[in-house]
């Protein structure tokens, strides 16, 4: 019979530069035993934590169960260290358990060889528990990962499946779309508040406006999808049901929204509107097909949050320069707004006509970028409205 420890060590993997944001999200879920490392946030929880983390984490890539960690400079050490771990406590007899791997700065540099050794060790451990020589692997999916770094092996089980950026609302995509997790991170880093207007003049498939609306309404980003661990005996269906009921109870869909986006490409706007409809937000968000120079955000004390085209992937560099200059001209006419621009362009501040108040290094995929932050007079939230 499968049996789990009441406490589980979990890892929320994170894009480089976003670890602190992921850690804040984990703590907001009520888990305070948190360790932040490069590319990962480790925390302690229980089986319900697997459900809540997958449903709620907006900026993490995936949620892993940390099975064990040990030094492995030889294949024998890797085999014995892996075999010593409690795989049958998690993996039932009929489970599918493929092995993925990666290695960096380690003597065991052949990833396929390491995957083979780990698979063999897990099978040997499973044989001891289940008394069989052959496993059908027709049941739930338990993806094992062996990650080697500086001759230390970390073995994990992937509770998530397809990355957490796969929210389920985006059926179509534009060229070079911004991941939902990165869009959510930009919004959280901006400290935007739901009562303020938000505008994205390069909205593409609408990811930033949609993620902003989900944050404003406290919609758990994983509500519209499924996860590997839903088929795991140690994370029973009743826990998933309870976690989803909690999430539905926490929705604040009575909060009025002033969120809009525009893009020069009408086809992109069609994709954005379809995604908003799929997310249940079609009536709350406004999208327009127009060049950035004609964008006219409405209201005061708002935020522009945007990811302009880079040139390396989209369009012509002169067109990109023109678009960034137009963004600068729009920004000049919004004196109470703060603007946040994710871009690899080293001339961005020149095009905006001022030095950024703050810059944060981020990676959009493998492209090194900066989040340029231009605060309104009076600080991040702009001028205060006079007392009535």
TrEMBL record:
The keyword Membrane does not apply. PROSITE patterns: N6_MTASE, THUMP, UPF0020. Residues 49-159 form the THUMP domain. It is an enzyme of class 2 (transferase). The keyword RNA-binding applies. GO terms for molecular function: 23S rRNA (guanine(2445)-N(2))-methyltransferase activity; RNA binding; rRNA (guanine-N7-)-methyltransferase activity. It comes from the Bacteria. This is Ribosomal RNA large subunit methyltransferase L. It comes from Paenibacillus solanacearum. The lineage of its organism: Bacteria, Bacillati, Bacillota, Bacilli, Bacillales.
């Amino acid at each position: 019979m499968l049996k789990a420890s009441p406490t589980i060590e979990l890892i929320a993997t994170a894009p480089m530069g976003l670890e602190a944001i992921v850690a804040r999200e984990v703590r907001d879920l009520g888990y305070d035993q948190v360790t932040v490392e490069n590319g990962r946030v480790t925390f302690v929880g229980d089986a319900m934590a697997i459900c809540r983390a997958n449903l709620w984490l907006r900026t993490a890539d995936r949620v892993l169960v940390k099975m064990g960690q040990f030094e492995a400079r030889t294949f024998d050490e890797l085999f014995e260290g892996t075999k010593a771990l409690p795989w049958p406590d998690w993996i039932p007899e009929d489970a599918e358990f493929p092995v993925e791997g990666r290695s960096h700065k380690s003597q065991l540099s052949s990833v396929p060889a390491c995957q083979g050794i780990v698979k063999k060790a897990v099978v040997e451990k499973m044989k001891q528990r289940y008394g069989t020589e052959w496993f059908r692997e027709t049941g739930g999916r338990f993806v094992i990962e062996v990650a080697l770094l500086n001759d230390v092996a970390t073995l994990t089980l992937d509770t998530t499946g397809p990355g957490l950026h796969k929210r389920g609302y985006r059926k179509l995509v534009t060229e070079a779309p911004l991941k939902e997790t990165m869009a959510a991170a930009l919004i959280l880093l901006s400290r935007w508040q739901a009562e303020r207007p938000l505008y994205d003049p390069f909205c593409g498939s609408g990811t930033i406006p949609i993620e902003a609306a989900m944050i404003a309404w406290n919609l758990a980003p994983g509500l519209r999808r499924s996860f590997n661990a839903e088929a795991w005996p140690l994370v029973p269906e009743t826990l998933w049901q309870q976690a989803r009921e909690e999430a539905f109870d926490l929705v604040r869909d009575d909060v009025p929204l002033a969120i809009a986006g525009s893009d020069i490409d009408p086809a992109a706007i069609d994709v954005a509107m379809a995604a908003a409809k799929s997310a249940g937000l079609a009536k709350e968000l406004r999208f327009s097909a127009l060049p950035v120079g004609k964008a006219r955000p409405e209201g005061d004390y708002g935020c522009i949050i945007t990811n302009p085209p880079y040139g390396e992937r989209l369009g012509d560099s002169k067109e990109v320069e023109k678009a960034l200059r137009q963004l600068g001209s729009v920004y000049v006419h919004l004196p109470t707004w703060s603007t946040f621009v994710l871009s690899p362009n080293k001339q961005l501040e020149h095009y905006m006509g001022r030095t950024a108040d703050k810059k944060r290094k981020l990676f959009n995929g493998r492209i090194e970028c900066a989040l340029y932050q231009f605060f309104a007079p009076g600080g991040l939230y702009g001028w205060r409205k006079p007392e009535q």
